Automatic annotation (TrEMBL):
InterPro entries given in the database record: Cyclic_Pdiesterase (IPR009097), Phosphoesterase_HXTX (IPR014051), RNA_CPDase (IPR004175)
Catalytic activity: a 3'-end 2',3'-cyclophospho-ribonucleotide-RNA + H2O = a 3'-end 2'-phospho-ribonucleotide-RNA + H(+)
One Pfam match: LigT_PEase
Protein name per UniProt: RNA 2',3'-cyclic phosphodiesterase
Length: 184
């Protein structure tokens, strides 16, 4: 099984991200764009595991949320990771980033205790809108043309989710396997 830990979004956030994604697509000549139902904020990509290991992961998730109360993030800005003549286009997040980073660090520690390697690159929170995107104009033009409502698009974080990534009928699906509430 291929798994990762993420923050899932309410439908209104997915709908808003889809609206932004469509604007980006209008400036694109090519790309592999995320399906709106798959929008999420990855906390930790784990990769391939045996189903028998899932209990250890969910126990580590429970340990990682100790002392973390629900918090709020907001959609922030468009960004990109260049990949040759293509790029990954993403939406950044703002808000209570100190709490998000604490959650990430505690998750890294608890997963590390069960043998999952820590991320050496550090945490760069982003929501992938499209991969292998080719733009018809410079990215800076797209970023300035796409207006993002920073104040209205609030992501309320009450839980973290263990997700399975798999293909069904050729379509990439992210299926929640376990949802771990934050401490109240």
């Amino acid at each position: 099984m291929r798994v990762f830990i993420a923050i899932e979004f309410e439908q209104h956030i997915k709908d808003y991200l889809n609206k932004i994604q469509k604007q980006v697509m209008s400036y694109s000549t090519d790309g592999n764009f995320s399906r709106p139902e798959n929008f999420h904020l990855t906390l930790k990509f784990i990769g391939e595991v045996q189903p028998s290991f899932l209990g250890s992961i969910t126990a580590a998730m429970a340990q990682s949320v100790h002392g973390i109360k629900p918090f709020k993030l907001r959609l922030h800005n468009l960004g990109n990771f260049p990949r040759g003549n293509k790029m990954i286009i993403w939406m950044g997040v703002g808000g209570e980033l100190d709490v998000l980073n604490l959650l990430f660090n505690q998750l890294e520690t608890s997963l590390g205790s069960i043998g999952i390697a820590k991320d050496t690159r550090g945490y760069s929170p982003h929501i992938t809108l499209g991969r292998e995107v080719r733009l018809a104009v410079p990215f800076s033009k797209v970023a300035s043309a796409v207006a993002i409502d920073h104040q209205q698009q609030i992501i309320e974080v009450h839980k973290i989710s263990l997700m399975e990534s798999k293909r069904e009928e050729g379509r990439l699906m992210y299926i929640p396997l376990h949802r771990q509430p934050l401490a109240d």
